[in-house]
Amino acid sequence: MSNTKSGDFFVIKALQDGVNVIGLTRGSDTRFHHSEKLDKGEVMIAQFTEHTSAVKVRGKAVIQTSHGELYTNEAE
Ligand code: TRP
Q1: What would be one Pfam family of this protein (predicted)?
Q2: Is residue 73 pLDDT above 60, yes or no?
Q3: Is 34 in the pocket of ligand 1 (CB under 6 A)?
Q4: Among 3, 19, 72, 76, which is disulfide-ready with 38 (CB 3.0 to 4.6 Å)?
C-alpha cells in the first residue's frame, strides 16, 4: 500500500434492503468518509485505497475477501 494507490478488493452483496457499506479513512484521523446504501441483491466491488483503510458493514450481507467469505450476524 505504501507505493500504490490500491490494495485488496472485496465484494459485498446485500441480503436485505438498506445495507450500509461505510468507508473509514486511513491515517491517524479515523473517521467515516463514505456511506453507500445497497438494496437486496445489489453488489459492491471495492478496494482498500490510500484513502480507505477500513470498512464497516451494517445489515444483512455476504462479504468476500481474500481471507474468505463471511455473513454478517444478521444473516445467521
Ligand atoms: N474515494 C474512496 C477511496 O478511493 C472510494 C472507496 C474505495 C470506498 N474503497 C471504498 C468507499 C470502500 C467506501 C468503502 O478510498
Answers
A1: TrpBP
A2: yes
A3: yes
A4: 19
